[in-house]
Amino acid sequence: DQQVKQNSPSLSVQEGRISILNCDYTNSMFDYFLWYKKYPAEGPTFLISISSIKDKNEDGRFTVFLNKSAKHLSLHIVPSQPGDSAVYFCAASGTGSARQLTFGSGTQLTVLP
Amino acid sequence: NAGVTQTPKFQVLKTGQSMTLQCAQDMNHNSMYWYRQDPGMGLRLIYYSASEGTTDKGEVPNGYNVSRLNKREFSLRLESAAPSQTSVYFCASSGGGSNEKLFFGSGTQLSVL
């Protein structure tokens, strides 16, 4: 049973428009959430994170929103650029048995020029 | 900065063969991890080492063994490879505190025939 779910395997967006990637989780013990970006033949790299005490965190073109009641988070990329084309993984961790990072299955984002 | 270095990058094995995947980090991190990435499954934790001298099972440890050789190095061994172990393997490291982000190596593509 996947505790972190990314229900959209792929997403295509025009350059300059907003990309919205979604993630849902089921474990109430998760209190820290991250997004990783992965290019082909490379390892994932950290992009942005958010603690459960916040509902929004922004870093340049990237903003992560957290809705704890819905157990849902989203990553917004504005404006999208062709170099943003990659696989994006949502991940979550918490305390106790949930202290290790649990990853979603990833969303392939393609930004069309 | 090398960061996290994994060897080899590619490997083909026959069923029943053994091999060891090597990982080294130069960031003086306490914690190290082995993940596997499979299509539609995201990244799943195989084993981790919270600190030098300790190792623990992750979500999918069956068929694998690990050794934390020293603070820098963490190896993953397949004693008798099976086709189900065909995957991309990633090593990662972190400082080890709570909410520490992971730094990943570039991966090992393993095929078991």
Describe the protein:
The complex is a heterodimer of chains A (113) and B (113). With 113 residues, chain A is mainly beta. Chain A is built from no helices and 11 strands. In chain A, the strands form 2 sheets. In chain A, strands 2, 4, 5, 9, 10 and 11 form a 6-stranded mixed sheet that branches. In chain A, 36% of the residues are buried. The model of chain A has no long low-confidence stretch (mean pLDDT 94). Chain B contains no helices and 11 strands. Chain B is 0% helix and 51% strand. The chains are: A mainly beta (113), B mainly beta (113). Chain A binds chain B through residues 2, 4, 6, 9, 32, 34, 41-46, 49, 51, 89, 91, 93, 99-106, and chain B through 4, 33, 35, 40-45, 48, 58-59, 90, 92, 98-99, 101-107.
Radius of gyration of chain B (Å): 13 Å
Order of helices and strands of chain A: EEEEEEEEEEE
User: How many strands, which pairing sense, and closed or not: the largest β-sheet of chain A?
Assistant: 6 strands, mixed
Uncertain runs of chain B: none
Assembly type:
heterodimer
Rg measurement of chain A, Å: 13 Å
Percent in helix of chain B: under 10%
Structural class of the secondary structure composition of chain A? mainly beta
Count of separate DSSP helical elements of chain A: 0
Q: What series of H and E elements makes up the topology of chain B?
A: EEEEEEEEEEE
Largest sheet, strands/sense/barrel of chain B: 7 strands, mixed
Beta-strand level of the residues of chain A, as a percent range? over 45%
Show unreliable segments of chain A: none
Task: Walk me through the topology.
The complex is a heterodimer of chains A (113) and B (113).
Chain A: E1 4-5, E2 10-14, E3 19-25, E4 30-38, E5 45-51, E6 56-59, E7 62-67, E8 72-77, E9 86-94, E10 102-103, E11 107-112
Parallel strand pairs in A: 2-11
Antiparallel strand pairs in A: 1-3, 3-8, 4-5, 4-9, 6-7, 7-8, 9-10, 9-11
Chain B: E1 4-7, E2 10-13, E3 19-25, E4 31-38, E5 42-49, E6 56-57, E7 64-68, E8 74-78, E9 87-94, E10 103-104, E11 108-112
